[in-house]
Amino acid sequence: MSTTTRPPSPGHHAGPADEAGPAWSSRPPVAPWHRLRSPTRPRWRRRRLLGAAVALVLAVLVLLPDLFGLDRVLPFAVFAALRLPLAVATWVLGVGLLALRPRWWPVLAPTLAVAVLAVALVVPRAVPEPAPAPGGTELTVLELNSFEGHADPRAIAATALGAGADLVVLPEAGDRMRRALAGLLPGWRTWTNVPPSAAEVRGVVVASSPRAGDVSAQRLDGDTRYPWAEVTGGILGPTRLVAVHLVSVVPQWISYWPGELAMLQRWCAAAGPAMVVGDLNASPDHSAFRAGTAGCTDAGTATGTSLVGTWNSGVPRWLGTQIDHVLTRTAPDGSGPQARSLEVLDLPGSDHRALLVRLRLGAGPAAGSPRVHTPPVG
Question: Do 65 and 181 belong together in one domain?
Protein backbone atom coordinates (compact mmCIF):
# COMPACT_ATOMS: atom_id res chain seq x y z
CA MET A 1 0.00 0.00 0.00
CA SER A 2 1.35 3.39 -0.91
CA THR A 3 1.35 6.14 1.69
CA THR A 4 2.02 8.89 -0.80
CA THR A 5 -0.56 11.61 -0.61
CA ARG A 6 -1.96 12.49 -3.97
CA PRO A 7 -2.61 16.12 -4.87
CA PRO A 8 -6.29 17.04 -4.93
CA SER A 9 -7.98 16.90 -8.27
CA PRO A 10 -9.16 20.07 -9.92
CA GLY A 11 -12.36 21.39 -8.42
CA HIS A 12 -11.95 19.26 -5.31
CA HIS A 13 -12.46 21.07 -2.03
CA ALA A 14 -10.58 19.83 1.01
CA GLY A 15 -12.79 18.39 3.65
CA PRO A 16 -12.19 17.45 7.29
CA ALA A 17 -10.62 14.17 6.32
CA ASP A 18 -8.20 15.89 3.96
CA GLU A 19 -7.16 18.43 6.64
CA ALA A 20 -6.43 15.63 9.08
CA GLY A 21 -3.98 14.16 6.58
CA PRO A 22 -3.38 10.48 5.92
CA ALA A 23 -4.43 7.90 8.47
CA TRP A 24 -0.78 6.97 9.17
CA SER A 25 2.71 7.94 7.97
CA SER A 26 6.15 6.36 7.93
CA ARG A 27 7.79 9.62 9.07
CA PRO A 28 8.18 10.09 12.86
CA PRO A 29 6.74 13.28 14.31
CA VAL A 30 9.23 16.10 14.74
CA ALA A 31 9.27 17.95 18.10
CA PRO A 32 9.44 21.74 18.11
CA TRP A 33 13.00 23.09 18.11
CA HIS A 34 12.73 24.61 21.58
CA ARG A 35 12.04 21.16 23.04
CA LEU A 36 15.16 19.62 21.60
CA ARG A 37 18.05 18.91 24.03
CA SER A 38 21.49 19.42 22.61
CA PRO A 39 23.66 16.35 23.11
CA THR A 40 26.62 18.70 23.85
CA ARG A 41 24.99 20.33 26.90
CA PRO A 42 25.79 17.51 29.41
CA ARG A 43 29.27 17.34 27.96
CA TRP A 44 29.76 21.09 28.52
CA ARG A 45 28.60 20.76 32.09
CA ARG A 46 31.13 18.00 32.73
CA ARG A 47 33.89 20.10 31.20
CA ARG A 48 32.90 23.07 33.32
CA LEU A 49 32.99 21.01 36.52
CA LEU A 50 36.34 19.53 35.54
CA GLY A 51 37.73 22.99 34.78
CA ALA A 52 36.54 24.33 38.11
CA ALA A 53 38.13 21.39 39.96
CA VAL A 54 41.46 21.77 38.16
CA ALA A 55 41.53 25.55 38.75
CA LEU A 56 40.71 25.06 42.44
CA VAL A 57 43.45 22.48 42.96
CA LEU A 58 46.02 24.65 41.20
CA ALA A 59 45.02 27.69 43.27
CA VAL A 60 45.37 25.73 46.51
CA LEU A 61 48.76 24.30 45.51
CA VAL A 62 50.11 27.71 44.53
CA LEU A 63 48.55 29.95 47.19
CA LEU A 64 48.15 27.64 50.20
CA PRO A 65 50.89 24.98 50.00
CA ASP A 66 51.91 25.50 53.63
CA LEU A 67 48.54 24.23 54.87
CA PHE A 68 49.51 20.79 53.56
CA GLY A 69 53.25 20.86 54.33
CA LEU A 70 54.14 21.11 50.65
CA ASP A 71 56.07 24.35 51.18
CA ARG A 72 59.08 22.42 52.48
CA VAL A 73 59.98 21.36 48.94
CA LEU A 74 60.39 23.15 45.63
CA PRO A 75 58.67 24.84 43.89
CA PHE A 76 56.08 25.23 46.64
CA ALA A 77 58.54 26.91 49.03
CA VAL A 78 58.88 29.72 46.50
CA PHE A 79 55.11 29.90 46.01
CA ALA A 80 54.60 30.32 49.76
CA ALA A 81 57.19 33.09 49.93
CA LEU A 82 55.33 34.98 47.20
CA ARG A 83 51.84 34.28 48.51
CA LEU A 84 50.59 37.88 48.59
CA PRO A 85 51.65 38.99 45.08
CA LEU A 86 50.50 35.67 43.63
CA ALA A 87 47.12 35.97 45.35
CA VAL A 88 46.65 39.52 44.12
CA ALA A 89 47.64 38.50 40.58
CA THR A 90 45.19 35.58 40.72
CA TRP A 91 42.39 37.88 41.85
CA VAL A 92 43.07 40.47 39.17
CA LEU A 93 43.27 37.83 36.44
CA GLY A 94 40.09 36.11 37.64
CA VAL A 95 38.08 39.33 37.84
CA GLY A 96 39.32 40.32 34.39
CA LEU A 97 38.24 37.01 32.91
CA LEU A 98 34.82 37.34 34.55
CA ALA A 99 34.39 40.76 33.00
CA LEU A 100 35.09 39.28 29.57
CA ARG A 101 33.30 35.96 30.07
CA PRO A 102 30.59 36.28 32.76
CA ARG A 103 29.39 32.72 32.06
CA TRP A 104 32.71 31.41 33.41
CA TRP A 105 31.82 32.32 36.97
CA PRO A 106 31.21 28.71 38.10
CA VAL A 107 34.77 27.88 37.06
CA LEU A 108 36.43 30.99 38.47
CA ALA A 109 34.49 31.47 41.70
CA PRO A 110 36.33 28.75 43.72
CA THR A 111 39.71 30.06 42.58
CA LEU A 112 38.80 33.61 43.57
CA ALA A 113 37.69 32.32 46.97
CA VAL A 114 41.11 30.72 47.51
CA ALA A 115 42.80 33.99 46.53
CA VAL A 116 40.70 35.87 49.08
CA LEU A 117 41.63 33.34 51.78
CA ALA A 118 45.32 33.67 50.91
CA VAL A 119 45.17 37.46 51.26
CA ALA A 120 43.26 37.12 54.53
CA LEU A 121 46.09 35.00 55.95
CA VAL A 122 48.69 37.65 55.10
CA VAL A 123 47.01 41.01 55.73
CA PRO A 124 46.95 40.78 59.56
CA ARG A 125 50.76 41.00 59.53
CA ALA A 126 50.39 44.58 58.25
CA VAL A 127 48.57 45.56 61.43
CA PRO A 128 50.93 46.50 64.30
CA GLU A 129 50.52 44.91 67.68
CA PRO A 130 50.26 47.08 70.84
CA ALA A 131 53.54 48.82 71.59
CA PRO A 132 55.56 47.56 74.55
CA ALA A 133 55.26 49.41 77.82
CA PRO A 134 57.57 52.38 78.25
CA GLY A 135 60.75 52.02 80.22
CA GLY A 136 63.64 49.64 80.06
CA THR A 137 66.80 50.04 78.03
CA GLU A 138 66.74 50.98 74.36
CA LEU A 139 68.54 48.62 71.99
CA THR A 140 69.02 49.34 68.28
CA VAL A 141 70.04 46.57 65.89
CA LEU A 142 71.07 46.92 62.24
CA GLU A 143 70.94 43.75 60.12
CA LEU A 144 71.95 43.34 56.48
CA ASN A 145 72.88 40.40 54.29
CA SER A 146 76.02 41.84 52.72
CA PHE A 147 75.75 39.74 49.54
CA GLU A 148 79.05 37.88 49.73
CA GLY A 149 80.74 40.97 51.17
CA HIS A 150 79.76 43.24 48.26
CA ALA A 151 77.70 45.65 50.40
CA ASP A 152 79.32 49.05 50.84
CA PRO A 153 81.01 49.14 54.28
CA ARG A 154 80.97 52.96 54.25
CA ALA A 155 77.19 52.98 53.86
CA ILE A 156 76.83 50.38 56.61
CA ALA A 157 79.03 52.36 58.98
CA ALA A 158 77.30 55.65 58.20
CA THR A 159 73.88 54.08 58.76
CA ALA A 160 74.96 52.49 62.05
CA LEU A 161 76.38 55.75 63.37
CA GLY A 162 73.50 57.88 62.12
CA ALA A 163 70.87 55.58 63.62
CA GLY A 164 72.71 55.11 66.90
CA ALA A 165 72.92 51.34 66.41
CA ASP A 166 74.22 49.29 69.31
CA LEU A 167 74.73 46.07 67.36
CA VAL A 168 75.30 45.35 63.67
CA VAL A 169 74.77 41.84 62.27
CA LEU A 170 75.94 41.08 58.74
CA PRO A 171 75.35 37.62 57.23
CA GLU A 172 77.49 36.75 54.20
CA ALA A 173 80.42 38.77 55.57
CA GLY A 174 83.88 37.63 56.59
CA ASP A 175 87.20 39.04 57.67
CA ARG A 176 87.49 41.51 54.80
CA MET A 177 84.22 43.18 55.78
CA ARG A 178 85.16 43.03 59.46
CA ARG A 179 88.44 44.85 58.86
CA ALA A 180 86.73 47.47 56.72
CA LEU A 181 84.16 48.19 59.42
CA ALA A 182 86.78 48.26 62.16
CA GLY A 183 88.51 51.11 60.33
CA LEU A 184 85.26 53.00 59.84
CA LEU A 185 83.88 52.52 63.34
CA PRO A 186 86.59 53.51 65.81
CA GLY A 187 85.93 52.27 69.33
CA TRP A 188 83.59 49.53 68.12
CA ARG A 189 84.27 45.85 68.69
CA THR A 190 84.07 43.59 65.63
CA TRP A 191 84.00 39.81 65.16
CA THR A 192 83.60 37.28 62.41
CA ASN A 193 82.95 33.59 62.84
CA VAL A 194 85.13 32.44 59.92
CA PRO A 195 88.91 32.55 59.37
CA PRO A 196 90.48 35.13 57.03
CA SER A 197 90.86 32.51 54.29
CA ALA A 198 87.13 31.69 54.22
CA ALA A 199 84.84 33.07 51.55
CA GLU A 200 82.76 36.03 52.68
CA VAL A 201 79.53 34.19 51.91
CA ARG A 202 80.23 31.70 54.70
CA GLY A 203 80.67 34.16 57.52
CA VAL A 204 78.71 36.47 59.80
CA VAL A 205 80.17 39.74 61.06
CA VAL A 206 79.02 41.26 64.35
CA ALA A 207 79.93 44.77 65.47
CA SER A 208 79.06 46.39 68.81
CA SER A 209 79.21 50.06 69.74
CA PRO A 210 80.92 51.43 72.84
CA ARG A 211 77.47 51.95 74.36
CA ALA A 212 76.83 48.19 74.12
CA GLY A 213 79.50 47.56 76.73
CA ASP A 214 81.31 44.28 77.26
CA VAL A 215 79.62 42.28 74.54
CA SER A 216 81.25 39.04 73.45
CA ALA A 217 80.66 36.77 70.45
CA GLN A 218 81.51 33.15 69.82
CA ARG A 219 81.16 30.84 66.86
CA LEU A 220 78.53 28.12 67.02
CA ASP A 221 79.52 24.90 65.33
CA GLY A 222 76.55 22.74 64.53
CA ASP A 223 74.81 20.93 61.73
CA THR A 224 74.35 24.06 59.60
CA ARG A 225 75.59 24.92 56.13
CA TYR A 226 76.95 28.26 57.36
CA PRO A 227 78.27 28.71 60.91
CA TRP A 228 76.24 30.85 63.32
CA ALA A 229 77.43 33.06 66.18
CA GLU A 230 76.05 33.77 69.64
CA VAL A 231 76.36 37.23 71.17
CA THR A 232 76.03 37.77 74.91
CA GLY A 233 76.83 40.22 77.71
CA GLY A 234 76.98 43.97 77.92
CA ILE A 235 73.77 45.80 77.09
CA LEU A 236 72.05 42.48 76.35
CA GLY A 237 72.09 41.46 79.99
CA PRO A 238 70.55 37.97 80.25
CA THR A 239 69.46 37.99 76.61
CA ARG A 240 71.27 35.61 74.28
CA LEU A 241 71.43 36.79 70.66
CA VAL A 242 72.15 34.35 67.85
CA ALA A 243 73.33 35.74 64.51
CA VAL A 244 72.31 33.38 61.72
CA HIS A 245 72.40 32.74 58.02
CA LEU A 246 70.25 29.82 56.89
CA VAL A 247 70.59 27.97 53.61
CA SER A 248 68.88 29.28 50.51
CA VAL A 249 65.75 27.69 49.08
CA VAL A 250 67.53 26.16 46.10
CA PRO A 251 67.55 22.54 44.83
CA GLN A 252 70.90 21.60 46.38
CA TRP A 253 70.04 22.95 49.86
CA ILE A 254 66.26 22.71 50.22
CA SER A 255 66.53 19.40 52.09
CA TYR A 256 68.58 21.11 54.86
CA TRP A 257 66.35 24.19 55.13
CA PRO A 258 63.52 22.89 57.36
CA GLY A 259 66.04 21.32 59.73
CA GLU A 260 67.97 24.55 60.16
CA LEU A 261 64.75 26.42 60.90
CA ALA A 262 63.90 23.78 63.51
CA MET A 263 67.25 24.48 65.25
CA LEU A 264 65.99 27.95 66.16
CA GLN A 265 63.94 26.32 68.91
CA ARG A 266 67.14 26.34 70.95
CA TRP A 267 66.49 30.07 71.43
CA CYS A 268 62.78 30.46 70.76
CA ALA A 269 61.90 27.76 73.31
CA ALA A 270 64.55 28.78 75.83
CA ALA A 271 63.70 29.55 79.43
CA GLY A 272 65.45 32.92 79.31
CA PRO A 273 65.23 35.91 76.95
CA ALA A 274 66.66 35.52 73.48
CA MET A 275 66.97 37.10 70.04
CA VAL A 276 67.47 35.64 66.57
CA VAL A 277 68.93 38.06 64.03
CA GLY A 278 69.87 37.42 60.42
CA ASP A 279 68.86 36.02 57.06
CA LEU A 280 66.50 33.08 57.59
CA ASN A 281 65.60 32.67 53.91
CA ALA A 282 62.01 32.20 55.08
CA SER A 283 58.92 34.18 55.99
CA PRO A 284 55.91 33.62 58.28
CA ASP A 285 54.13 32.17 55.24
CA HIS A 286 56.34 29.07 55.55
CA SER A 287 55.18 26.31 57.86
CA ALA A 288 58.78 25.42 58.75
CA PHE A 289 59.40 29.04 59.80
CA ARG A 290 56.33 29.05 62.03
CA ALA A 291 57.33 25.77 63.64
CA GLY A 292 60.99 26.69 64.16
CA THR A 293 60.28 30.15 65.56
CA ALA A 294 57.35 29.16 67.79
CA GLY A 295 57.83 31.01 71.06
CA CYS A 296 59.53 33.99 69.40
CA THR A 297 57.92 37.17 68.09
CA ASP A 298 58.87 38.44 64.66
CA ALA A 299 59.70 42.16 64.88
CA GLY A 300 58.21 42.73 61.43
CA THR A 301 54.91 41.15 62.40
CA ALA A 302 54.83 42.94 65.77
CA THR A 303 55.34 46.35 64.16
CA GLY A 304 53.09 45.79 61.14
CA THR A 305 55.96 45.90 58.63
CA SER A 306 56.21 42.19 57.82
CA LEU A 307 55.01 42.66 54.24
CA VAL A 308 57.87 44.98 53.26
CA GLY A 309 60.29 42.87 51.25
CA THR A 310 63.97 42.66 52.10
CA TRP A 311 64.74 40.39 49.14
CA ASN A 312 65.22 40.99 46.32
CA SER A 313 66.30 44.62 46.56
CA GLY A 314 66.02 44.86 42.76
CA VAL A 315 62.21 44.59 42.83
CA PRO A 316 59.63 46.88 44.46
CA ARG A 317 59.21 46.40 48.20
CA TRP A 318 55.62 45.18 47.83
CA LEU A 319 56.72 42.46 45.42
CA GLY A 320 59.59 41.11 47.51
CA THR A 321 59.60 38.95 50.64
CA GLN A 322 60.86 39.76 54.11
CA ILE A 323 63.30 36.90 54.70
CA ASP A 324 65.59 38.88 57.02
CA HIS A 325 64.35 38.90 60.58
CA VAL A 326 64.82 40.05 64.14
CA LEU A 327 63.01 37.61 66.42
CA THR A 328 62.55 38.22 70.14
CA ARG A 329 61.64 36.12 73.16
CA THR A 330 60.99 37.49 76.63
CA ALA A 331 61.43 35.58 79.88
CA PRO A 332 58.54 34.89 82.25
CA ASP A 333 59.77 37.69 84.53
CA GLY A 334 59.40 40.22 81.68
CA SER A 335 63.10 40.61 81.02
CA GLY A 336 64.29 40.57 77.47
CA PRO A 337 63.67 42.34 74.17
CA GLN A 338 60.48 43.67 72.62
CA ALA A 339 60.38 45.44 69.26
CA ARG A 340 59.28 49.08 69.17
CA SER A 341 59.82 49.86 65.49
CA LEU A 342 61.28 48.40 62.32
CA GLU A 343 62.54 50.19 59.23
CA VAL A 344 63.53 48.59 55.94
CA LEU A 345 66.48 50.44 54.39
CA ASP A 346 68.11 50.36 50.97
CA LEU A 347 71.91 50.19 51.20
CA PRO A 348 74.19 49.97 48.15
CA GLY A 349 75.96 46.81 47.09
CA SER A 350 73.59 44.16 48.44
CA ASP A 351 70.72 42.22 46.90
CA HIS A 352 68.96 42.47 50.29
CA ARG A 353 67.52 45.44 52.11
CA ALA A 354 68.60 46.16 55.66
CA LEU A 355 66.55 46.04 58.85
CA LEU A 356 66.89 48.76 61.47
CA VAL A 357 65.04 47.58 64.58
CA ARG A 358 64.59 49.54 67.79
CA LEU A 359 63.77 47.44 70.81
CA ARG A 360 63.05 47.74 74.49
CA LEU A 361 64.98 45.53 76.89
CA GLY A 362 62.59 44.85 79.74
CA ALA A 363 63.79 45.18 83.29
CA GLY A 364 65.34 42.03 84.68
CA PRO A 365 68.41 40.85 86.50
CA ALA A 366 71.31 42.76 84.98
CA ALA A 367 69.24 43.67 81.93
CA GLY A 368 70.45 46.72 80.12
CA SER A 369 73.50 47.16 82.34
CA PRO A 370 76.57 47.53 80.13
CA ARG A 371 79.78 46.26 81.63
CA VAL A 372 83.25 47.65 81.29
CA HIS A 373 84.34 48.04 77.68
CA THR A 374 87.33 45.99 76.59
CA PRO A 375 89.49 46.41 73.47
CA PRO A 376 88.25 45.02 70.15
CA VAL A 377 88.82 41.33 69.51
CA GLY A 378 89.77 39.71 66.22
Answer: no
